[in-house]
Amino acid sequence: MPTNDSELQAQARSILDAIAFISFEQCQPLSREFNHIPARPGIYAIRHRTEGLLYIGKTKSLRGRFTGGHKAFLWAWLDQYNDADVRIAAQLIDHWENPKLLLELEAIILRATDPPYNVQIPTER
User: Fold this and answer.
1) DSSP 3-state assignment of 36?
2) In this predicted model, what pLDDT tens digit does every residue of 57-81 receive, in sequence order?
3) Please, what CATH class does the domain formed by 5-113 belong to?
4) pTM
5) Planar angle of CA 79, 111, 93, nearest 5 degrees
6) Which residues contact 110 (CB under 8 A, 6 or more apart)?
C-alpha cells in the first residue's frame, strides 16, 4: 500500500498502464453474464477499439458492476458503437478495505485520462 504521494502516483500510473495499454484483443468482450470477469475488487476501463478509453471506474466486484448494467454501455450504444468494438480492461485491487486510497487512485487516473463518459472528474486537492 502506498505510504506517500509519489508512491500513490506510481501505483496509479501502474494501474493506468495495465488498463490503457493492454492490447484491445486481451480486454474482456461484452457478454450478458460477464462470467469471464472476476467478482473481485478492481479499477476498470471501458475501451473502444479505435477511440481508446471511454470510462474509468472502481468497484468492489467487477462482475457485479457489469451484470447490473453500466451507463457507459448505454452511451456507447447511443454513440452507435459496434458492441464488438467495446471491451473491458480491469486491474484487480488487493486493498479494497481502504476506500480513501481507491478514491485517490481513481481521481489520479481520471485527471490523467479525462475519458469522455466520466461526467465529473474529482478536483485535485
Assistant:
1) coil
2) 999 899 999 998 899 999 999 999 9
3) alpha beta
4) 0.87
5) 90
6) 56, 118, 121, 122
